[in-house]
Amino acid sequence: MQPECDMIFCLLRKRSRTWINLKANAGAAVRDAIEKHLRHQPTKASKSRIKRLRGFSHPQYRLRVGDDIRVFYDVTEATVEVLAVVAKSEADAWLAKHGESDETGSTV
Fold this sequence. Notes:
- The chain has helices at 18-21, 24-38, 88-98, and strands at residues 9-12, 50-52, 56-58, 61-65, 69-75, 79-87, 100-101.
- By secondary structure, the protein is of the alpha+beta class.
- It has a single domain (9-101), classed as RelE-like (YaeB-like fold).
- The strands form 2 sheets. The protein has a 5-stranded mixed β-sheet with strand order 1-6-5-4-2. A two-stranded antiparallel ribbon has the order 3-7.
């Protein structure tokens, strides 16, 4: 379900410590990608940028930022909640630790 508003509030949970460890240019790229892709059409899946995660009820989506960074997030009617900003190399481990499976059991 696509949010009906054109202003989405992005929240970053405290458990995403990786955000703090990003270099300045990587942090700017993440902020720009969140603004560009998640503010207006956070649920619009694309071939490579935004992916709806199958097999997970939480997080619902993954945003790819460049080749090395992944942003995991959930969408409600009026809010995008950024759950984690992690290196691509740590994405599978983060999902295994923090992801919540849905009923189907299939993954990405």
